[in-house]
Design a protein that fits this description.
By secondary structure, the chain is mostly helical. The chain has six helices and no strands.
């Protein structure tokens, strides 16, 4: 068994040691990353320094130049190992963060489920149905009340339509009689028209026909006025 195996076996044999929480493990992983990053920076500086020494000695001191290159190679190997270790730690940290997130989500969902169950324990589906029916009935009552208020309310308006129409006709007849009393009819002349004086012989025939047409027009107007008066009097009675 390797020393590494013995180390992990010995570490795991202690049953009394409690497992660290995810927060503690994440904090330690971040500390390790920070330590390895500093180590990485140190090795990069050493590599550049050894490379500068090898260039400085060059062919003048070949032994010193070779020793510098050997140290550079060791540092590069360590740097490669640290790069791999950092990649593994980053992957482990991300996985642990995701696990912690999933754990928190699951725990919160469990709390919400318990709270929902506690709320539903005080609810009865039969009571809910009864409540909804009661609400629907109250809505119907409110609708009937609104319709009752919106209806037209009559106070002693049951009158006889025939009596009202007869009274209206009497009022119209009175108004018409008042208007007719104020109308002045034109006077119809009772005497005949005066004789026309003698005219020039050449114009006798035309003058006679003009006078005849004038008398006919006057007679028609008088007859029309008489007819209008008779119709108006007949309508008034």
């Amino acid at each position: 068994m390797s020393k590494l195996g013995k180390f992990f076996k010995g570490g795991g044999s202690s049953k009394s040691r409690a497992a660290p929480s995810s927060q503690e493990a994440l904090a330690r992983l971040r500390e390790t990353e920070e330590m390895l990053s500093k180590k990485q920076e140190y090795l990069e500086n050493r590599i550049q320094r050894e490379l500068s020494l090898a260039r400085k000695h060059g062919t003048k001191n070949k032994r010193a130049a070779l020793q510098a290159l050997k140290r550079k190679k060791r540092f590069e190997k360590q740097l490669t190992q640290i790069d791999g270790t950092l990649s593994t730690i980053e992957f482990q940290r991300e996985a642990l963060e995701n696990s912690h997130t999933n754990t928190e989500v699951l725990r919160n969902m469990g709390i919400a489920a318990k709270a929902m169950k506690a709320v539903h324990e005080n609810m009865d589906l039969n009571k809910i149905d009864d409540l909804m029916q009661e609400i629907a009935e109250q809505q119907d009552v409110a609708q009937e009340i609104s319709e009752a208020f919106s209806q037209r309310v009559g106070f002693d308006d049951n009158f006889d339509e025939d009596e009202l129409m007869a009274e209206l006709e009497e009022l119209e007849q009175e108004e018409l009689n008042k208007k007719m009393a104020n109308i002045r009819l034109p006077n119809v002349p009772s005497s005949s028209l005066p004789a026309q004086p003698d005219r020039i012989p050449g114009r006798m025939s035309s003058t006679s026909s003009s006078a005849h047409r004038s008398r006919a027009a006057s007679s028609r107007r008088a007859e029309e006025e008489d007819d209008d008066i008779k119709q108006l009097a007949a309508w008034a009675t």
